[in-house]
Amino acid sequence: MNQIKEKILEKHCYTELVYERINKKLESSFSKKESELLIKNVIKETEIAFFNKKGKNFYISNKAKNMRITVNSNTFRIITVDVLNKK
Question: What is the domain count for the chain?
Fold first, then answer.
């Protein structure tokens, strides 16, 4: 599974729509670069135990950052980001 984390870090990508979705879900106004940096850092910081594959997606849950990242397992495209516990 550690190879999966490395592969996601190496190959993850974005669509224009996902930048908007990230800002909407996180109630933020990050630039594209800020969104990319956030996603990359969360993936790096998340222990492999919190990478789960269900169907065609990987779900990367990081409790410290209070977010879950959904990544397509075939294309490694970031699909969305969700807040784990809404305040």
Answer: 1
The structure tokens listed for 3 are 């190879």
The CA-to-CA distance between both ends of the chain, in Å, stands at 32
For 1-87, list the strands marked E by DSSP.
51-54, 57-62, 67-72, 78-83
4's tokens: 């999966």
- The CATH number for 11's domain is 3.30.2310
Give residues with Cβ within 8 angstroms of 82, minimum separation 6.
Answer: 25, 67, 68, 70
* 35-72 pLDDT tens trace: 999 999 999 999 999 999 999 999 999 999 999 999 99
Q: Is the pTM of this model over 0.85?
A: yes
**What is the domain range of residue 73?**
2-83
